[in-house]
Amino acid sequence: MRIAVTGSTGLIGTALVRSLRADKHDVVRLVRRTARAADEVEWDPLRQSVDAVGLIGCEAVVHLAGAGVGDRRWTEAYKKEIRDSRVLGTAAIAEAVASLEVPPRVLVCGSAIGYYGDTGDRAVDESAPPGSGFLASVCEEWEAAAAPAEAAGIRVAFARTGLVVAGEGGAWGRLFPVFRAGLGGRLGKGHQFWSFISLHDEVAAFRHIIDTDTLSGPVNLTTPTPLTNREVTEAMGRILHRPALFTVPPFALRIALGEFAEDVLSSQRVLPKKLLDSGFTFTHPSIDEAIRAALP
Predict the structure, then answer these.
(1) Long-range contact list for 40-43, CB < 8 A, 24+ apart?
(2) How many domains does the chain have?
(3) Of 194, 191, 187, 192, which is closest to residue 247 (Cα–Cα)?
(4) Does the pLDDT value for residue 7 go beyond 80?
C-alpha cells in the first residue's frame, strides 16, 4: 500500500514510518522544504500549499504534523503557532486529497484527548462533547478543518491521542531522566487522571484505523486503564527502582509553564471505546507494561 505521512520526523511519525516500511509498504513523507528524495513530497502547512501530484496513488494519508504543545511556554504568539500549525495544515492536506481524481480511501488526522477538557473523575469516550479551554478549542478547529476531505467522500478518522509512554521523546521522554535521578514525584495533589498509551500500541492503533473501514470520526488512542498521576508516579518509581517522594506544587508549575500548567494539572479519564468495539487488542494495557516497553 502507498501511504503518505506528515510529521514523519516526530515521535509517533518516526515509529509509524518504521513500522510501515518494515511491512514493505511504500511510504511517502511530506517535508517542509524542497523534496530531495523519491519518497518526499513538498508542502508548506502555513501557506496551505501541498504538491498534490506526489499524493497520487496513495490509498491512505496520515497527518501528524503540528507544533509541540509542551515544547515552549505558552505566549500568545506560540499559542497562535500551535493553532495555525494544526488548523491550517489539516485544511491544506484535506483540500489536497479532495482535489485528487482518485482520492485516498482514508485520511487519519492526529488529534488529542485535550478535546474533552478537564473531565475530573468522570470517564468519557468518543461520544462526549468538547470541553473548555485553549486545547479543547484547538482540537475542535483542528478536526473541523478536515471537512473538505469528508465532503469528497473520503473516510476521515481523528486519532485523539493521550500521553504516549516512550523513552525517546514526547512528554514521557522527559520524565524518565527525572525519575532515574531519584527526583520524580507527583504533580500537584496527584489526583488528576492520566490517560496513556505505549508507543507500540499507538502505532498499532494508527495501523488498525487505516485497515478498518468501519472506523471514522473520533477514535481515542488511550489504554482502557487510565490512572491518577499519583498511581503513575508510584509505578515509575517502582519499575525504575527509585524513590518517588517529591511533589511539584501547583504554583511552581504555573511559574515554570505558565498557562500550560493548568492542562498539566487537569484530569482526563478517557476510554478507547471505538478501538475496543472494533476488535483492537492492546499489547501494553497496564502502566507497568507500558513503562517497561519504553525502557531501552
Answers:
(1) 41/4, 43/6, 43/92, 43/93, 43/96
(2) 1
(3) 187
(4) yes
80/266 Cα distance (integer angstroms) = 22
The β-bridge partners of 110 are 159
Residue 252 has pLDDT above 80, yes or no: no
Q: How far is CA 3 from CA 19, 44, 100, 200, 219, in A?
A: 12, 19, 15, 19, 20
CATH code of the domain covering residue 28: 3.40.50.720
Highest mean pLDDT of the ranges 70-74, 113-117, 165-169, 239-243: 113-117
Q: How far is CA 94 from CA 45, 71, 113, in A?
A: 11, 26, 21
Containing domain of residue 247, as a range?
2-294
Does the pLDDT of residue 158 top 70, yes or no?
A: yes
Q: What is d(CA 154, CA 135) in angstroms, rounded to the nearest whole number?
A: 26
Q: Tell me the three state secondary structure of residue 221.
A: strand
DSSP state of 130: P
Question: Has residue 250 got a pLDDT over 80?
Answer: no
> How far, in Å, CA of 80 to CA of 46, rounded?
11
pTM of the model: 0.94
Q: How many CA atoms lie within 13 A of 143 on its CB side?
A: 20
Encode pLDDT of 85-115 as tens digits: 999 999 999 999 999 999 999 999 999 999 9
